[in-house]
């Protein structure tokens, strides 16, 4: 598996797990190993951008284990981005109200102006 695909998969798995329960020590160690794996600098520039984002998001997910937060990339008009936490109580509220936001944020790792966006749209903003 290429580094970008491995990071995307690890990020998605960590997010899915965090939304339901705190990560175990074993899971944390496994995700940290993937997050710290070296990158392939010969990739296309879009892949390098995405790899940097997924690496940061996975690291952010692992940084707040006790709070059961997961993070998405909040993208800005000026092509900058930052990690943005999604709290467990927000996830619970989305579940209780059957909000479509839960499905969108479960699938997508990116946000623009408070709206979940997919990877294709995110690349235009990175």
Your description of this structure?
The structure is a single chain. Strand 1 and strand 2 form a beta hairpin. The longest helix has 19 residues, at 45-63. The two termini are 24 Å apart. The protein is α+β, with helices and mostly antiparallel strands. It has a four-stranded mixed beta sheet. It is globular. The mean pLDDT is 90. It has six helices and four strands, in the order αααββααββα.
Strand content: 5-15%
Mean pLDDT: 90
Structural class: alpha+beta
Ends distance: 24 Å
Give the helices and strands as they follow along the chain: HHHEEHHEEH
Q: Give the proportion of residues in helices.
A: 55-70%
Computed CA radius of gyration, to the nearest angstrom:
14 Å
pLDDT below 50 for ≥5 consecutive residues: which ranges?
A: none
Largest sheet: 4 strands, mixed
Order of strands, main sheet, comes to 2-1-3-4
Q: Rough shape?
A: globular
